[in-house]
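Page header: ASSEMBLY MODEL / three components / 1027 residues total.
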Amino acid sequence: MTTQRLLATLALSASLFAIASTTQAQEPTEVSWLMWSSSDEQTAAWQYVADLVNKQHPDIKVQLQTTNWADYWTKLPTLAASGQLPDIVSLQSLRAPGFAQIMEPLDPYIEETGFDIDAFDQSIINGLSMDGSVFALPYDFGPYVVYYNKDRFDEAGVPLPTVDWTYEEFLSAARALTKDGKYGFAVTAMGYIPFALSDGAEYLTEDGELNLDDPKLQAAFQKYADLAAKEKVAPVIAASGTMSTQIASGRFQSGDVAMFTTGPWELINQKNKTDFTIGLAPIPAGKAGSITTSAGSGFGIAKDSDKKDEAWKAIQVLTGPEAEQYLASAGRAFTGRIAEQKYWYENAATDVVNARPALEAALANAVPFRTTPNWNSVEMLSEQYAPLAYSGAESGAEVMDTISTLVEE
Amino acid sequence: MTPEQTAAPINLAGIGRLASHLAMVVISLVFLFPFFWMISNAVRANSEVLAIPPILWPNEAHWGNFIAAWSYLPFGRFFLNSAFVAGSITIITLVVSSLAAYAFARLRVWWLNSIFVAYLATLMVPQAVLVIPLFLMMTHLDWVNTYQALIIPMAFSSFGAFLLRQFFMQIPIELEEAAMIDGASRLRILLTIILPLSAPALGLLALFTFTSQWNSFLWPLIVVYGTEHATIPLGLTMFQGEQGTDWNYMMAGAAISMMPAVILTILLQRYIFKGIAIGSGFGGR
Amino acid sequence: MSIARDRAVAIGARSAANELLAVTDPSAGASRKPRPAAAVGYSRRRQDAHAAIWFLLPSLTGLTLFLIVPLAASLALSFTNWQLLADPKFVGISNYVRLLTFDPTFYRILGNTVLYTFEYLTLNIILSLGMAVWISSLSWGKTLFRLVFFLPTFTPLIGVSLVWLLIFTPEGLMDWLVASLHLPIPNLVTDPNWAMQAVIIVSLWAGFGYNLLLFGAALESIPQSYLDAAAIDGASAWQRFWSIKLWLISPTLFFGMVMTAITALQVFDQVYALTRGGPGNATATLGFAIYNSGFTTYKMGYAASISWVLFVIIMALTLVQLRLQRKWVHYDA
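Prediction written out in full:
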């Protein structure tokens, strides 16, 4: 090797080293974010949103980690227990109370930075709050509504549900749609709650304690269970490793049940998987009107994080207008930000009968789906025990009493 | 030839034998039905999976579902992860178990017997007892979400040591005595004499270890997240999302994921029978 | 906790149980070939001790770190009220007291576990032995048939359970079949009195292939000379089975029983995936209760105490079986 070449090589490596060290100096702060995702496609969408953060704050880089939906709730507490939580934690409103203790209250940040929290729907902000403190900013939410198979209604000559339909109309529709081995409706483990609320029965007490031994609630649950047990307008869904909501959703897709309840988050998937026309309707009005619950998810900051300020900047972007518009346009989120909901209606809800009126009517009477810290147990026990009432093996009151006792345990 | 077969008219015995074989074929087909159901559900539209009444075979078979299931998730990645993890565990198990088994089979030391009984007792420990403390250990080692967390804690089971010990014990001792007189070390004897004679037992151990790790679910679920280190069983659960389940893809994925183990078994099948006869402690006597 | 792992362990442990016998029953080891006394000199023994340490070092280290330490840790945990998200506090034996006296579901769950174990064990042994005898009497296809019944082992549990879920689900294939044939059978997974049968059916389908292989191999290894001798004595096929084959394979049969019982007592996967313990707690087992306490309600201390109760039950049952075997198992074949 000639001296010249040697010098050139040295110079080159020196400059490379210099470049390397300057990039080292400007290396953005890495903020970790754990999110659920069920496919590459979803992960790509979350990655897109994570990259938005770096675009707006070049000094912050969000490191996305994903796990699938069901496993997320096994993983989160194990990570918390071992001090391995990411900086940004994703939370679903139903499960938020159980995890409040590992989360940083956002109120001081909101106040300090003058963040406009009113751009979000109030019911989901409440859903992600515990004892008056907000723990996460929502990216999506939605009220539970009735999805129906318009083709089945037309075939059976049953009038389509209106936004002010009553329980009696719902029941007679379900009866008319139950024939030839197909059913009108699907009952799920927790599905009775909006129906109970619409009948004026409460599943939680004023103090937020479980109210499952309340006779009024038990009567409302019995009425719901009787849709399967006595009226036989809904198939019995057995307890299994697959959640009853997933089975109900599968039965709806196959056209076996003409109606079931879920939130707007499932619409894009249902539309892609079905070849009939889907329609939406609010929960049918009972004695107390049509009252539904709304639930959603958002992003908060782990209490143990040592990058809280960066994380706060990041979650503002993750739930910011640009991210929300992107998620809504892809049909992934009925956005927590009210202004961006229009993109969801325009993209996800096309060809869906009454999507907008039904959701707006539902939202007008939606209450946050409040839960207890041990909601995970309540849900699991309901999956396990509710089928006893649906098959008529036990009364609704017996089932509710059992769940109530076991949750206390 | 049994006496009544020779005593009875030939054609009668022949009919009986034929009937016996036919009955076994029928039973096998019935037994295999769930596999048919798996394939049948894998190639139908998702909306036909839960149809009432059930559809035995879809009107239109979507064989493309296998490709769709494969590309829906980074299944190739899961496949490689599973193969790497199960393969590594199998190799470590073979090495570690051979060493221990040799000690138990051949060395005469007064405390070996007590240790051996302790090894036996570990087989009675329910797995559920261990998972949480193991996970805590992984976090302290900072191994969460790494390959070593998937591999190392699962690579030490006393089962391999037993299986191999049973086999080693029936290899004639004289083969070793000769080598010993020539001054060969114990390790050398193990490597050059015992292991080459133990191919069936090693094959059997490799098969059991590999298939059980290939299907292992709870430990990977707890110790890794994301798709980077996920194994196939974890991948299968990803078809069950927040927004509904892709039953057909999940069935297709399950069918795909069976293939390596089935192929491995067909390749190793002559070892399975030999190996088990030895492992049971009966054939060896 | 994976079923496949349990199965694999079960196979290996059959040989383990053999050794346990050798330890507890002097006659069991009698047939082992004695070593030439001259070869075992003093220096050899020292060399042996030295070698033994090195040969055992990898597995002993691994087992200690990843089995003994966690096992001890879980015993320690069972005396705390640790709930994952909060710091653990020492509570003495109160977890055990609560489990055995207050817990309203414990005895039902224990009963379910015992029922499952008893029924599964009985059916498994009868089926696998019967099929093994049958297959070994065939003149062609032995390997093929054994592989067929071994095949479920290769399917990841989540796939197996979903296939069966689609078969058993209300108005699914099974109901359709039952209705077409007008059989008086209710839907298995929604009827609390029948749900356990569904779990047992799936367990048998997924698990009996192992014992089939084991017993098949034992039958194959019976020296033909024994059977020929019996045939000359004029024994019928039926007599030969009972008086010779069964007697000769009784040690293998015994290992199969012990290990099937150990894995059956731990049953979790099938319950979790197929019935989630329901309907009600009709199919909840101890293995399921451990998972539930630990990962649904995050009560780790309580979960650890249930798992130790299970461990003790497994040990007790295994010891009982070891005692009983002297009455019916024959070693000096």
